[in-house]
Specification:
Layout: H1 8-19, E1 22-27, H2 33-46, E2 54-58, H3 60-73, E3 82-85, H4 89-97, E4 102-106, H5 110-117, E5 125-129, H6 140-148, E6 154-159, H7 170-178, H8 187-194, E7 195-197, E8 200-201, E9 206-207, E10 210-212, H9 216-224, E11 228-231, H10 233-236, E12 242-249, H11 253-265, E13 267-269, E14 274-276, H12 280-292, E15 294-296, E16 302-304, H13 308-320, E17 325-328, H14 332-341, E18 345-347, H15 353-358, E19 364-367, E20 384-387, H16 394-401, E21 413-420, H17 424-445, H18 450-455
Parallel strand pairs: 1-6, 1-11, 2-4, 2-5, 3-4, 5-6, 12-21, 17-19, 17-20, 18-19, 20-21
Antiparallel strand pairs: 7-10, 8-9, 13-14, 15-16
Amino acid sequence: MTNFIPHSYQAYAIQHVLDNEASGLFLDMGLGKTIATLTAIVELMHDRFEVERVLVIAPKRVAEDTWSRETEKWNHTAYLKISKVLGSVKKRQEALEAKAHIYVINRENVDWLVQHYGKDWPFDMVVIDELSSFKSPSAKRFKQLRKVRPFIKRIVGLTGTPAPNSLIDLWPQLYLLDKGERLGKTVTGYRNTYFNPGRRDPSKFIVYTWELKQGAEDTIHETIGDICISMKAKDHLNLPERIDNVLHVDLTDKERKLYKQLEKDKILEFEDSDVVANNAAGLMGKLLQLANGAIYGEDKEVIPIHDQKLEALESIVEEAQGQPILLFYSYKHDRDRIRERFKQAEELDQEDSIARWNRGEIPLLIAHPASAGHGLNLQDGGHIIVWFGLTWSLELYQQANARLDRQGQTESVIVHHLLTKDTADEQVLRVLQDKEIGQDALMEAVKARIEQAKRG
């Protein structure tokens, strides 16, 4: 165990939680959101006697490991008892009945938890780890937590990506913090106040995109700035430089012809099966599969198309000269083809995978970004990332890269993006870059002015 001496930015975050019954910590990956929150909990619980029972809602992997591990790491938090409300209904009920300071549950079971307690909600403080997972106002987890929000005295929302797609995602998250005080009581009111309808289907009265009204972005930032603070890692950590590298592969004339045919006709005919795209989203998925090298047929059988990305990955592995590589894939057939080609590859699915990776024992660790997106510290095991296929989600993209590009990393992190030239691959990267620009504007607008606070 270690004595915790907070950095100035951590001390600022801790004080923010103490000073505000509702607070949003929009802290970049690696800035210590967990220990800052735990430190505030210790003071609120045992110095100020303001809270008695704390609930942490987190992604499953984080709920299983991160909060208990972080608690055990520091002298001032080691005494806290964590009860993990995970597993079967019986195990969850037993965990709730156990005497503990903090109860940790995965977000998929929020619906069950609210129904279990109803109006007898026992938690006077709630921490939502990865607040952005509550960005959908129609999701059950949001609707259920909204029901018990009046019974919660203190609430903290933690995320590094508050607006992973656009500011339209912000309303549900802020509602859970302030019950609609700042951005309005309804998502409809929020949209009408700050947005204009963009692309839509008039015949079905469906709006597909919302566009910010002039000046609305600054107004939103200003409105939430009193309870939300933002910190970027680059402002507070002396991390080694991150190098983003795009490696293009090209299709042969025959492969390109297949791609163009699918793009145009939404169907490919093969000897044993057909590939059919039923709508625009389905077509985009099929095009991305083809760009990666294989595609699912009508009966979910895998139809191989090319090995261009596998050959490019082989070059990266050779150039790495034995240095460990963390690879993110999109589809199961990507994973299977990679494992068939690279016998040294292992999946991030074993209990000891993280420990063995950090000891340098796994030369090629492959993972889906959705399974490695939050709370995993992999920075001790390597500094090379490869994206075999990109995700549309900015949140998953940033979180996945932050498994290596975080505090404790001693090498320059290299992020390779394998893109098939003149395909949907390139469009996905452009979309991610555009989303990042929008989110950076939000983060900058509510950034904690720590030095200013020190002076004043």
